[in-house]
Amino acid sequence: xxxxxxxxxxLAAHLDDPDWLIFDVRHDLAAPxxxxxxxxxxxxxxxxxxxxxxxxxxxxxxxxxxxPLPSPAQxxxxxxxxxxxxxxxxxxxPGKQIAAYDQGSGMxxxxxxxVLRWLGFxxxxxxxxxxxxxxxxxxxxxxxxxxPQPASFVPRPQDLTVDAGEVLANLSSPILTLxxxxxxxxxxxxEEPIDPxxxxxxxxxxxxxxxxxxxxxxxxxxxxxxxxxxxxxGDTPAARVVHQCGSGVTACHNVLAMEIAGLTGSHxxxxxxxxxxxxxxxxxxxx
Length: 287
Description:
- The protein has 287 residues and is an alpha/beta fold.
- The protein folds into two domains: 5-136, Rhodanese-like domain (Oxidized Rhodanese, domain 1, 3-Layer(aba) Sandwich); 164-276, 3-Layer(aba) Sandwich (Oxidized Rhodanese, domain 1).
- Helices cover 29% and strands 10% of the residues.
- It is built from eleven helices and nine strands.
- The strands form two sheets. The chain has a five-stranded parallel sheet with strand order 1-5-4-2-3.
- Helix 5 (109-118) crosses helix 10 (251-260).
């Protein structure tokens, strides 16, 4: 079973495996239709397109963040349409192996990976290096439109999230340690290209998700990731860590990186900065 990362060669060996599902999660925050367009132009053979906005997010209200989580039941219904199967009990036969990829870094594929883990499904791995690595190696591509085979998916939600109220109640407490996955300039409030207010949640540490990647665009080794997160967190156990970003997407990349590093059990604040800053009564920091 692959539960964190999968290499291009490993995925290539299973392209025609009926027990595998491949999901294309390419996306552009500035131009959401781009992902579907480039999927139609070319994709990994047998891959199905999954939309960040339509399949992995609920409807934004202006107060719940830019990519709010759907309910577990909504997520399960959407995933079942793509053929993801899960029974009521963990001892049931496992579902198919899933490989998810995006244009390269894994920032969007990690959201699908995290959603599945949140629902109790562990047989999902992010393609290391994504589409960019796949093309660079000359791996096969396709333009065929795949037809998903619907399945039955029973969600088994895990305790992997915290909400704005929990974050607010613990701002001055060691119970939670926030890690912000956005670029340092956005964290410091020097620029904010997406949300109406710049800055960060008071007390949050900054670990841009791009720090998880090597110069070649693949994830750093487990040992290197472990050393870097330990240097950032000190003695804080992973179970007390809460990841956030702008809208609960790139934060999943940091969750994945910690899992690769063997630092398991961290949480996600799905609303993240876009939800937090929508209420001017919540404290905000810069610098």
